[in-house]
Amino acid sequence: MAYLEIDDLKTYFHKKSGMLFSSTVETIKAVDGVSLHAEKGEILGLVGESGCGKSTLSRTVMQLQPATSGRIVLDGVELTALPSHAVRRRRLDFQMVFQDPYASLNPRMNVFSTLAEAIRQRHPSASGKKLAGRVAELMETVGLDPRFQRKYPHEFSGGQRQRIAIARALAPEPKLIIADEPVSALDVSIQSQILNLLKELRQQFGLTMIFISHDLGVVRYLADRIAVMYRGKIVEEGEAEQVFRWPKNAYTKELISAIPSMSTLH
Ligand SMILES: Nc1ncnc2c1ncn2[C@@H]1O[C@H](COP(=O)(O)OP(=O)(O)OP(=O)(O)O)[C@@H](O)[C@H]1O
Fold first, then answer.
1. Which of 40, 80, 138, 263 has the highest CB neighbour number within 10 Å of its CB?
2. Structure-derived torsion over alpha carbons of residues 63, 126, 161, 52, reported in degrees to the nearest 10
3. Where in this chain does the record put each ABC transporter domain (predicted)?
4. What is the pLDDT of residues 123-164, one digit of tens each?
């Protein structure tokens, strides 16, 4: 069994429309029978156009959105079968990195407080000394000078803020990181720095990651395998290079040919 195993996962929403006496309930199949897997230390790229269900899929995997049916197993534990009190604790095993680090960081908390709070989620009784050491270590891991730990988010550049967000995601020692468009709000020159950092982290710590992006070039650079999502379903999945060079599905071909530089990369 793979480290992360998603099996026939469905997440449906029911939307009421119409007036009181003539209302109908529409079922939105945001995630409609998705099966995916990732080995430990693997980066799985998830691509697809806006509205195809990527966010709902990641929210369901993170146990923030109940699944309608299907199974999610992480490191041998079936999350979809856990009682709710156990789910809360298990949530620590998943951390997210979002598109906009400025929106996702608390502007009133300096780097030390942000990271210390995240460390305490896993180690509630960590001593002051232990916190200080771990904060410095985390900052160094993501390429930030620990001397800046008393600074606030607005005192950093966009790329540095994303480094803080990545350090915060690492702090509770997660088993899986879901990065949702983590570089799309950054300048192109900074994007590659953050992508390289994610690559290094994977190498250093065997981090397992689902990397969500609409930018296939970025996904090709980072991901080992790619899953292409379309209208709630995975329409293609395979080794990154294979999917890019020999896409089988018509929608994947369309996505690749939509990137001018990609269609000539053979
Ligand atoms: N809470 C909800 N209630 C009803 N419908 C929802 C809800 N969340 C998502 N949807 C619908 O589910 C479908 C998938 O949405 P989702 O946000 O998962 O797509 P996405 O691929 O992540 O899009 P984006 O890249 O724009 O975030 C859409 O049709 C959306 O309108």
1. 138
2. -10
3. 4-256
4. 999 999 999 999 999 999 999 999 999 999 999 999 999 999
